[in-house]
Amino acid sequence: MFRPRKKRNEDCIPTASMADVAFLLLIFFLSTTRFDMKNGLGIVLPGPTTEETQRVRILDDNLTRILINRDGQVQMNNEVVSLQELETAVRQIVIQNPEMVFMLRTDRQSKYENMVNVLDRLRVAGAERINLSTN
Known about the structure:
Blueprint: H1 18-32, E1 63-68, E2 74-76, E3 79-81, H2 83-96, E4 101-106, H3 112-124, E5 130-134
Parallel strand pairs: 1-4, 4-5
Antiparallel strand pairs: 1-2, 2-3
Helix pairs in contact: 2-3
């Protein structure tokens, strides 16, 4: 007589609720993760130029050039100065000419920290008109 074979019950992990568990874990980690907000430089940028606005020409008498080279040396009007000397000189210039524009140019290979240090010194010294550019 022919007897059909019995099927063995194989042990297996039920996967029906795996998606639910993954979804709950995802919700848990998204709701408990804290994202840190980085504060940038507090600079007010001018609005975009249009055809109606004209470019402003700055006289050389109202422009002070500050250069940071790749080694981190600061030059003001082609003279190497320290950060303390820079701050003192900028204070005197701002007192003499409040309309002075400080053009801060940084070498592309210079550290970002150098530019931030010089920019902080300019702001502490009272410079309000600062032009930022790179080589």
